[in-house]
Structures are given as C-alpha cells and as structure tokens.
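Record type: monomer structure entry
Structure origin: computed from sequence
Chain ID: A
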Amino acid sequence: MEEKSILIIDDEEQLRSLLKRLIALEGFQVSEAGNLKTAIPVLEKVKPGIVLCDVKLPDGNGVDFVQKIKTISPGSEVILLTAYGNIPDGIQAMKNGAFDYIVKGDDNDRIIPLLHKALEKVQLSKKIEQLQKLLSDKYSFDTIIGESVPIQQSIALSKKVAATDTTVLLLGETGTGKEIFAHAIHNNGNRSDKPFVAINCSAFSKELLESELFGHKAGAFTGAIKDKKGLFEEANGGTIFLDEIGEMPTELQAKLLRVLESGAFIKVGDTKTIKVNVRIIAATNRDLQKEIEAGNFRSDLFYRLSVFQITLPPLRERIKDIPALANHFASVFAAKTNKAVPILQIDYLEALQHYNWPGNIRELKNIIERSVILNDEKQLTLKNLPVELLSANSNSLYSAFELAGAEKLHIQKVLNYTKGNKTEAARLLGIGLTTLYRKIEEYHF
C-alpha cells in the first residue's frame, strides 16, 4: 500500500479533475474512477491509503461500497462525499467503516485537513501492524534456536498445543526459556491478536498478588483509592502467563482453581462475579508432585493445570546447541554495543560446551554479553571467559596429568586477572615478557 495515494470515485468528471489538482498539490498521488465497477481493479492494483467516494453513483451506493473497499484493501481509509447531508446515511457509513462523511460544497474547506487526518491514521495503523509483526516474529517458534532432539521435541509439542485453547504447564529449570515458549504458544494460536499478559507469582506478597490477578474495589484495603482491573480482566479473550506458579500461596490457589473451572472470579472487596475467557499457561521450576506431598500445592489445581505438560530441557542436555546460541547472542550484543560481530574461537566454544550451566540459557546469555562488552578484538577466546567458568571447566578441559593444559589454564587465569596486561602478567608468573609472548603464541591465546 502506498500511504499517500488517493483514489477518487465520482461520476462528475469536472469535480474529479478539480479534486485531483487540489489534492496533487498536497503531495498525494491521485487515481480516478467514474463508477464502482472501474474502481475495483484500481483498488486491487493500487490499494490506496485513502478513498474519496461519492455516495450516489450510476452503478451503486457509496455507503454500501465501503465494505467492499475494506475487503479489497483493509488498510484504506474511506471518506464519503454526498450532495445532500443525510444523517442515517452518515451513521451507516461509519458502521461500515468509513473514516468520515462530508457534504459537497458545504464542507469543501474540510477536505484537505480531513485527508491529512486520514493519512495520519493510515500511517499509525501501518506502524502498529509493523510492530505487531516484529513482536510475532520475535516470539515465533522459528526464532527458538536449537537442533538437538530434546529442544525439538519441546517445540513439536508446543506447536501442537498452540492451535488449541488447552491449559499448558511448562516445566523446567530456571533460565530454560519458559516465557519465550509461552509467548510462542500464544502467538501461534487463535488468540494471537488478543492480549498476552504475564506475571511472576513469586514477586508479590499474597495480598498484592491477589489484587494483581483479580483486581480490587476502591476501599478494599489501605491504599486502594480506586477500582482496579486485575490481569485476568486485562487478558480477557487472550492469554495469561503465570510464571513460578509453584510459589503461589495456597490461599490463592483455590481462587485460581475456580477460574480454571468456571472462568469466574470476584475482585478483592467486591461481591459481584466477573466472567472472563482466558487461556492459562503456567510455568514452574519446582517439582509440583513433591510440593503436593509437602502440602504446599493443591492436587486438584495441579491436575487442572497439567492437562498438557511440556518439559524444557536444561542446557547441559543440549550441548550441541551451545555454538549456535553463543553466536546468536554474540551478534545481538555486538549490535547493541556498536561493535563488529566477533568470531568465536574453537577453544572458547569448547569451554562453553564443557561447562555445566546451572543457570542455563540465561547464564550463557550473560556470559556472552560480558565477553562482547570487554572484548576489543575481532574474536572471542578463552581469555574472554570469567575465571570462575574456566575453573569449573578445568577438570573437563584438560586431564589432571596434562602439564601443558594446566600451564595454559594458569596463564589464562593470570591474563584475565590483569585484564590483558602482559607485563603485569609476566611479573606475577615470574617469567620474562618474551617467554610470556612465546607461550601466548604456542597456546593460541
């Protein structure tokens, strides 16, 4: 669609010519049609940002034609022109999706300002559409990196359940990407054009969490000076993501169970029941079966939440995905810091693959960000990794009996400590600077 293009549909040739000259002076590209039949192919080809359409035409009514325009070119804004003002026609035009309805002659001075207002709406709608596409692309399954069997199995299950309204329970350690999967399930389902709201159940006290989820009436508690919508109301028609559901106080679990069973709840301090249509996706890093045995989680709520369980694998179970993830994060953070994308050397990637990753992808992301920020060269090597990671890796990277490996690791730790200052590193190692340079070349630092 060309935003600044306008189609004039009017059977009066002289009026069309006059409007075309006036509108062209405003920088618009103008097309013409004398009736509805000839307008259709122009609409299909040009998809104009704005359509100026007469109400009374030889082959039909412009008020009714608004719906046809919206079908062919949904992003077009329609302004109807009429020789005689007619309130019922004006009302129907707006119902059919027209931007405005003006009277020829009486409203001539309004036409140009109105075109610019319509253009603003077209441009805003286009920006919103672009932002929605960016958001959709960001949270699509195609953006989830990994070719290993465990992650591909999780993606396959998520794709199947996305097309339904089934409640989903995402299980996995902290940092495995549960919120990304929740977004992807929502964006690939039939609620993708509706709200997605998320809340971390561990971030609030019982009272605040209840208010955040279900809302409250003014005066319900100290500080409640006005009515407040809860997240379930905000998410109506869409999806609510309940992260860390295992941390939810048991008193609130009964209220959540009621929403799952009936779609109904009562605001804090209210007596009126509110009905909502919300899909629930929950996530936890806890073993909910053990929490049930300990009396911390309701078994009936667990069975309602776990209709469809998806377990996300920890990073240590998908080692083959680490190079792809690391290169992706390096590109992201290089762009953020206005640096060239570094090459990740083999020793750097090997060290990452030998680490246990208790913090999973989130920890890997942080390590890469740190590496990119501190690096001033075109590549990332072992010297760009924190000492703690190298220490945790030492037994895996090198045999305890391999002297060269131990020496290499020790030199690397000292270089990290001196932030690359080779003169200071040589002093601390008790060797000459020339010897240090020879070692650096020998070990390919």
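Annotation 1: The chain has three domains: 2-133, 141-313, 316-442.
Annotation 2: The domain at 316-442 is CATH 1.10.8.60 (Helicase, Ruva Protein; domain 3).
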